[in-house]
Design a protein that fits this description.
- By secondary structure, the protein is α/β, with parallel strands linked by helices.
- The chain has a domain at about 50-100 and about 275-365 and about 485-534: FAD/NAD(P)-binding domain (3-Layer(bba) Sandwich).
- Helices cover about 30% and strands about 20% of the residues.
- It contains 16 helices and 22 strands.
- The strands form five sheets. It has an eight-stranded mixed β-sheet with strand order 1-21-17-20-19-18-9-10.
- The longest helix is centred in the first third of the chain and has 23 residues, at about 5-25.
Length: about 525
């Protein structure tokens, strides 16, 4: 029987209270496994924020094409440029190799410390389809079975037991999914799909874009959706994709999640290390060579694309090129390079901080959701409730967290491995994002752990820690931009998308939200402009 709203709120509160009590009881009698906390981008990010870096450069250099940022957008630009014959390229890695696609590695084990899957690309995601074809993941419209998520794909801990589906099956759920099923193939009066990925290709029909004036919760209320199960599920999906729930995100964004990817949106591509698999494949495909340090000669020339562990700390467009200060992430050594073309593939908040005349380009600081990702190395699998099997995606009904994924699900073997990694996710977007960010940046590891372990404790109880040999927590203080109402027509984003000069910008932030397909789109668009110019 579906829960009422009152029962839902009561069960959520009881769940949180039980988790806290279980945690406190266990901590009173047990020692924790070793915990490591990685706060991505610190301390360099705050040094940039506070203008605390010396501007002096040790030397001056010139180069042809410079890509700033080794995340999905930067690597997509690199892949497209290399594919079309451009080899004289330097990639500045930025704060973290592969950005939000980064992986966690412990001995022979791998797991995501950022994005963990890619939904099957829509027909409009032409660049992603071309990329997957080049990487050997897709051929003749079909995907390699070994790259698709294995069964069991998902399960939901609901009223004390596991069930094998997340989406509600009640009347409101059926009505909602019937609507989104129709909207998947609906077109606006301009002939474009109402909901498309990349979002830049969505219809401009004002009748539908008016959805962006409401929150998703407001729209759901107006449409008389009352099922607590449905509302929780939609809230969970928005927190998972946008970092904030239905009470915060735009109604257009909420519907876009369900309508933009076509009929196979529930099937995903994934690997034990998450989307780091794609990022590393793009590096190999592009022939990217890693440099231990920047070249010393005044003129940099590369026969094959090269990368270095450096970050841009200042960008200025000049009449004869784009001048960039690059700082080595380990040594702190800073050099000045004048590039013919620069693709700035970093979050807009960082670009706005280090670029001269940011308002000229439309640079600004979006609202970001902080994230906490927990990787738990286990030396054996804990006992499950009933006869359920660990799925790839494991979610707890009513939880404010986003569940956990099991990297071992993608191993081809007849029995469970002896050791594995469970990866938990929590998004802290919404009205208290700033407060949560400060907590995540300053709290000691033992205060962060209850957030990361919450859903694992719901599934296994405090005995779970008996099986854990190592814990790694990754804090992403500005993990993804949130599509609040008004994001579709934000003037600065429209300005950035239209911009064309020797200094270009490429990041999923240009779409107002953060998914791989959007990052690829803007990376390739910047690469195309670069090819046209040279």
């Amino acid at each position: 029987m579906p829960l009422t709203r009152r029962q839902f709120l009561y069960s959520s509160a009881a769940l949180a209270a039980a988790s806290a009590a279980s945690w406190q009881l266990w901590r009173g009698f047990n020692a924790l496994p070793p915990i490591h906390v990685n706060r991505v981008g610190l301390p360099l990010g705050h040094a940039l924020r506070d203008n605390a870096l010396p501007p002096q450069a040790k030397s001056e250099h010139r180069c042809d094409i410079l890509i700033l940022g080794g995340g999905a957008a930067g690597l997509s630009a690199l892949w497209y440029l290399a594919k079309h014959g451009r080899r004289d390229i330097l990639l500045a890695e930025g704060f973290e190799r592969n950005g939000n696609n980064a992986a966690y590695r412990h001995q022979s084990l791998a797991a995501p410390s950022g994005a963990h899957y890619l939904a099957l690309p829509s027909e409009e995601s032409v660049y992603v389809r071309e990329m997957l074809h080049d990487l050997g993941i897709m051929a003749d419209g079909r995907f390699n079975e070994t790259d698709l998520v294995y069964a069991p794909q998902e399960r939901l801990l609901y009223q004390g037991g596991w069930r094998d589906h997340l989406a509600p099956q009640d009347a409101d759920g059926k009505r909602f999914f019937a609507l989104t099923g129709r909207l998947k193939t609906a077109y606006g009066r301009d002939g474009c799909k109402i909901f498309a990925i990349p979002i830049d290709l969505s219809s401009q029909d004002e009748e539908w874009r008016r959805l962006d004036t409401l929150t998703f919760a407001q729209w759901l209320q107006r449409q008389n959706y009352r099922s607590a199960e449905l509302l929780w599920y939609l809230d969970y999906c928005c927190r998972d994709d946008y970092g904030a729930g239905i009470a915060e995100v735009s109604a257009f964004a909420g519907l876009h999640y369900f309508c933009a990817r076509g009929d196979h949106a529930d099937t995903v591509l994934t690997w034990p290390e998450g989307l780091a698999h794609l990022s590393e494949a793009l590096r190999r495909r592009s022939g990217l060579q890693t440099l231990p340090r920047l070249p010393e000669q005044p003129q940099w020339r590369f026969d094959s694309p090269a990368s270095c562990d450096v970050s841009a700390v200042k960008i200025e467009e000049l009449p004869n090129g784009v001048n960039v200060l690059l700082r080595h992430n380990i040594s702190g050594e800073t050099v000045s390079v004048l590039a013919n073309r620069v693709i700035c593939a970093m979050p807009l908040m960082v670009a706005a901080r280090i670029t001269s005349r940011p308002e000229y380009y439309g640079l600004h600081t979006p609202d970001y959701a902080p994230w906490l990702v927990g990787n738990f190395v286990i030396n054996r699998f804990p006992a499950e409730i009933g006869r359920s099997e660990t799925a790839w995606d494991n979610v707890v009904y009513g939880s404010p967290h986003l569940g956990y994924v099991s990297a071992a699900n993608q191993f081809i073997r007849t029995a469970k491995p002896e050791r594995a990694v469970f990866t938990s996710y929590t998004a802290f977007g919404g009205r208290k994002a700033g407060e949560s960010r400060r907590m995540l940046l300053h709290a000691p590891s033992e205060e962060l752990l209850p957030y990361a372990a919450h859903d694992l404790l719901q599934a296994y109880g405090s005995r779970f820690f008996r099986y854990v040999e190592q814990i790694d927590l990754t804090v992403r203080g500005h993990g993804m931009s949130i599509p609040y109402p008004g994001y579709l027509n934000r003037p600065q984003l429209l300005q950035l998308r239209r911009h064309n000069s020797p200094l270009l910008f490429a990041h999923s932030d240009l779409s107002g939200y953060s998914v791989f397909e959007e990052a690829v789109y803007w990376g390739v668009e910047a690469a195309k402009k670069t090819l046209q110019a040279v």
